[in-house]
Structure formats: C-alpha cells, structure tokens
Amino acid sequence: MKIERLSQDKIRIFLTYDDLLERGIQKDDMWREIPKVHELFSEMMDQAYTELGFDASGGPLAVEVFALPAQGMVVIVTRGKVTAGAEDRLGEDDEETDEDIYEMEVTMEQSDVVMYAFRDFEDVIDACKQLKNAGLTEDGRLYSYNGKYILVLEPANIESSRNNAVIAVLAEYGEATSVTYAMLEEYGKVIMASGAVREVCTYF
Predict the structure, then answer these.
(1) Which CATH fold topology does 114-203 show?
(2) Rounded to whole angstroms, how far apart are CA atoms 146 and 45?
(3) Whether the predicted model's global pTM rises above the 0.90 cut
(4) How do 104-110 and 72-79 pair as beta strands?
(5) Is 129 left (phi over 0), alpha (psi -120 to 50) or beta?
(6) Is there a smaller number of Cβ atoms within 10 Å at the N or the C end of the chain?
(7) Domain-by-domain residue ranges, the chain?
(8) Cα torsion at 169, 175, 177, 178 (round to 10°)?
C-alpha cells in the first residue's frame, strides 16, 4: 500500500491486488458495503495519518476508486469541510464518530488501459524491443510524467491471449503505476502519441 499527498485535503492510495488478497478482499468487493472493506478503509486512514498527518476525522470524505487492470486500485480521498452542526454532533457523542468520519461518497471507475512506469529510458527501450520481437504489440503511447516514462497500452490493440505476456514484459522492466489515465492526460507530456513500441524500436 502506497500513500501520497496530492494537496492539503487530498491523498492518493495505491493498493495492489496482493494488498487486497492479503485481507481476503476480491476486486469486486470494493463496490460493496461490507465490513472487510470498511476495515481496509480504516487501515488506510490510519496509515495516512501516521505517514502524512492526514486527519480524515470530523468531516465528509469523497472517495474515488479507480480499478486498473493487472496493477491494482487507486483510491483518491478528498476531505470535505466540517459544518458547524457536524462539529456539535461529534462533540456530543464520541461513540458515533466512526459514522461521521467515514461519511463516504464513493465513485467507482474501471479502466482497461494498461500503464507501466519506467525510471530510465533504457528500460523503455528494452521493454519495447522485447514486446516487438515477441510479436506481442507495436502499439502504445509514451508519456513523461513526474520524472518517469509511462507506457500506455490499449487492450483493444492486444490479442487477449497475449495480455499476460505483455504485462509480464512490462513488469520485468517497469513497475505498475498509481497514476490514473485522466491525470496522465492532464499533467503528463506526450512523447509518442501512437505506435510507441514500434517508434522506440525504429529510432533506438
């Protein structure tokens, strides 16, 4: 589980599927109101407080969950403002604070786009050559974001039977990224807009 602060009132949590499995949670459980998911959320908020000093108590939280194929889930938590009435209620009865703390508005989004981050361009070259030589794909878009290179592949352009092989190659040279595609589109810099695997192999 990786937690990072995006702003004073917003954090991003990256959960791998291993993180979920360790807690007996299936991917689809994240859509459901079950005790295990509440326990996971409490654990995430405890860790956010310990690591970042992010205090989730005392106000409504907007929770966005993005499911990424083969990588895991990105959870973005935005802390809302506490109304005066809510403060009074919290003061009256501490036992009810849990309800107020996690007054969550959950938005789920599922993405089929595969994204992997690479620290060095050499790793991008090695991954692209292996993908091309194995006949897995020549497609993709390449971005620069936050000091890393991010290769984005659309599953529509990869035969489903080769999906696992593609991810195995990407995982060998890069790492699953917690960046959502929307953030990448907004803040990333496009290096190669299409045919990135082919282009990298041609020029490098």
Answers:
(1) Alpha-Beta Plaits (3.30.70)
(2) 25
(3) no
(4) unpaired
(5) alpha
(6) C
(7) 2-110, 114-203
(8) 130
